[in-house]
Amino acid sequence: MTTSTLITVAPTGAEAAKAANPQLPVTLDELVTTAKQCEDAGAAVIHVHIRDDDARPTLDLARLRDTVTALRAATSLVIQLSTGGAVTDPYADRLKVLDAGPDACSLTCGTVNFGDDVFMNPWPFMAELYQATQSLAIVPEFELFDLGHIASLHRLLDRYGPPHGGRVHCDLVMGVRGGFDGDLATMAAAVRALPEGATWSATGIGRASLPVLFGALAAGGHLRVGMEDTVTYAKGRPVRDNAELVERAARAAEIAQRPPMPTSQARAFLGVG
Ligand code: KMH
Ligand code: ZN
Hints:
Blueprint: E1 7-9, H1 28-41, E2 45-48, E3 50-51, E4 57-58, H2 61-74, E5 78-81, H3 91-96, E6 104-108, E7 112-114, E8 117-119, H4 123-136, E9 139-144, H5 147-160, E10 169-174, H6 184-193, E11 199-204, H7 209-218, E12 222-225, E13 232-234, E14 237-238, H8 242-255, H9 263-270
Parallel strand pairs: 1-2, 1-12, 2-5, 5-6, 6-9, 9-10, 10-11, 11-12
Antiparallel strand pairs: 3-4, 7-8, 13-14
Helix pairs in contact: 1-2, 1-8
This protein binds (5S)-5-amino-3-OXO-hexanoic acid and zinc ion (ZN).
């Protein structure tokens, strides 16, 4: 079992509304401030979605480039851009995200019902995105929302070989309506199905956030937290800000005797150059 815990913060996402969640970072300044606070609190990776001037999700390439530059200047976090975007984003725009030059990116391994929407990730798109990460030297994190996604991950690795960086690192996204339930039996089944030698973190959506956090720590996994995944700290109590969620994850990791992994160690762990 890894002796430390890689903590990823997902501060914004594409779904939460700024109007309902004033602490949601949507401008570049807000994102950079959040990133610094979360790094101080124990995060080593930031999973980034950006918004436009009206706080709507966007994959605008110039904005993404500015975001990568600003986060690199202000923090030593591993910068992982979302290639998932919003459910309405075209495949071509999602592929172009890699041109912003991040350290890492998310790569979802299959289509999934996503609440009342559908998050589309057909095989040809996944395969093209994966090969692009290899040729551009970007470390993919395999986002797994359902057991079938793990079968597609095996197929991807068998067909195209290992990822840039050498490590197969996955994120189990649990508690989306349409995907994995956020419980321990489901987590155990998913972990059993992962490729030999893969490492993993887990993300609990909404009310799944705490069971998934404690389950992942107990099972040797890593953690992703942030306002992309939950805007509620406890029943009836909104999250103060992203750093509050990272602080809680870091405290839990300390108690589990697997303290937060520093950014330098995270870079070596993930194979980020
Ligand atoms: N916003 C979701 C539709 C990712 O970032 O790669 C997809 C998502 C996954 O958040
Ligand atoms: Zn995301």
